[in-house]
Specification:
466 residues, 3-stranded parallel beta sheet
């Protein structure tokens, strides 16, 4: 099912170079510094329940496509916010998925899932309505075996480190269990403070109060609130965190005087607030988080450019993270300037910026990363981590920022079994591009081989302090 030359150039001479470069990176360990795998999988190490629960239900890349073609989320077993019943028969869900597999032709989802079926489970036939029951039975048989439990797969995938993402209000009980288990696999957490720094979050005020209870700080005032956040950052770092993550609508930052910050915070707690006020507060908190990163050494990631939960009906019935987020244009040059004026030249800060607005790569982000020592570019992300998206990213940023103002690759997935597939695809795409540049005499082959290793492994390990 899988060609050894997938994603390589069609020209025989360039393809041969790509094969040689890929040989340097194929077996490298996986560094997965940003993602959304469930830490309970590794803490409990229980068998995965069934094929759809593992491969379909956690993966919004898959069911958003099906929903766009009229397949209801209820019929795919996606839980509803109102608790009403949804399809529970995993075989029915799998058959429905197979009936619509043709919809994924040409998409990265097809590339990843085909890799997973072939390389992880040894499936040797295409998923079709006719083959789906045979494949289901084979997958179910595999999942019942010890070698397909989460920790065994983690080791088989050659994952060196995998980062999950948790709220600052999370007890991190599963990470505690992992730390005490004696298992050698490295699964670490990431500090994501969005629920307590976004005044438009529905539980913002309650979250701030809970933050105070967890830390013993008076979060009714701005100074106590900042101390509480710093305390939770230390709590996360003690359980392995090396990074924070901030999912904001825009990249807006502010650097207000202390008295204005305190007054603004008071208004946020009192509520309701305007969208403009909430944006100022979020932007101020990015600057505050950058300051804290200099103090505690945590790498700071900013993910911006998504209109979250754009499909109001899906959000109402099924909640967040159900495939309803849509990219939008974002400004970085003006928006990041207050933060960069204060901290952009401080090498103690490691700030990684991601975007869903690829028009900003060459116009804004690459020039910014090519100027400020604190700033690095995150990889092509989410809607852009396709073969074409990765190529456009490399071509758009390398001429200005080079390779070494970027941070390699991360998979950003909730679907654990897609991790090796995504990293393999990224390595192949990078090797294909580097092979073309070798053929064009823009790089020597030994230089390209070194860059390929850096893009696949070294840059992410260094950028995330792993």
């Amino acid at each position: 099912m899988l060609s050894e030359d997938r994603l390589f150039p069609p020209e025989p001479s360039v393809r041969a170079i790509a094969r040689g470069l890929y040989a340097h990176v194929r077996a490298l360990p996986i560094i997965s510094p940003h993602g959304h795998a469930d830490p309970s999988w590794f803490a409990h190490n229980a068998a995965f329940e069934n094929p759809p629960a593992l491969l379909v239900i956690p993966d919004h890349y898959l069911y958003r496509m099906l929903y766009s073609q009229g397949v209801s989320l209820d019929s795919l077993g996606i839980p509803r916010t109102d608790g009403r019943p949804v399809e529970r028969d995993p075989r029915k869900i799998w058959r429905l998925f197979a009936d619509h597999w043709r919809l994924f032709r040409g998409t990265p989802s097809a590339l990843w899932l085909t890799h997973t079926l072939a390389e992880v489970f040894g499936v040797r036939e295409r998923l079709t309505p006719e083959s789906c029951d045979r494949i289901y039975d084979h997958l179910a048989d595999c999942l019942a075996r010890p070698e397909f439990r989460p920790r065994s797969l983690f080791e088989r995938f050659n994952v060196e480190v995998l980062a999950t993402t948790e709220s600052p209000l999370d007890s991190l009980s599963h990470h505690h269990m992992l730390k005490e288990s004696g298992w050698k696999g490295r699964v670490i957490t990431t500090f994501r403070p969005d629920p307590v720094v976004d005044p438009e979050h529905p539980d913002f005020a309650d979250g701030v109060a809970q933050l105070g209870e967890l830390t013993g700080q008076d979060t009714g005032g701005f100074s106590g609130y900042l101390r509480a956040l710093a305390s939770r950052r230390q709590f996360f770092a003690a359980l392995g965190a090396t990074a924070t993550d901030h999912g904001h609508p825009t990249a807006a930052t502010f650097d207000l005087p202390a008295s204005e910050c305190a007054a603004l915070f008071d208004r946020m707690l009192a509520g309701p607030v305007s969208g403009a006020e909430a944006e100022v507060f979020r932007g101020q908190m990015l600057t505050e988080m950058a300051r804290m990163s200099i103090d505690d050494g945590l790498v700071m990631q900013i993910h911006v450019g998504a209109w979250r939960d754009h499909n109001s009906a899906v959000h109402r019935d099924f909640g967040s993270n159900r495939g309803g987020d849509i990219p939008r244009a974002t400004d970085y040059v003006r928006a990041l300037k207050p933060l960069l004026d204060r901290f952009g030249n401080d090498r103690r800060l490691s700030l990684i910026v991601f975007t869903l607005d690829e028009s900003a790569y060459s116009r804004e982000l690459a020039p910014l990363a090519g100027q400020y020592p604190a700033l690095k570019l995150g990889p092509a992300w989410w809607f852009l981590d396709s073969p074409e998206g990765i190529r456009r990213y490399r071509e758009g940023v390398t001429e200005t920022a080079g390779f070494y103002n970027t941070v390699g690759f991360n998979d950003d997935t909730r679907a654990f079994l897609s991790v090796p597939a995504r990293h393999d695809a990224a390595r192949r795409v990078d090797c294909a591009l580097l092979a073309r540049w070798v053929a064009e005499h823009r790089l020597d082959e030994d230089e390209a081989a070194e860059v390929a290793v850096d893009l696949a492994y070294t840059l992410a390990k260094r950028a995330y302090k792993l």
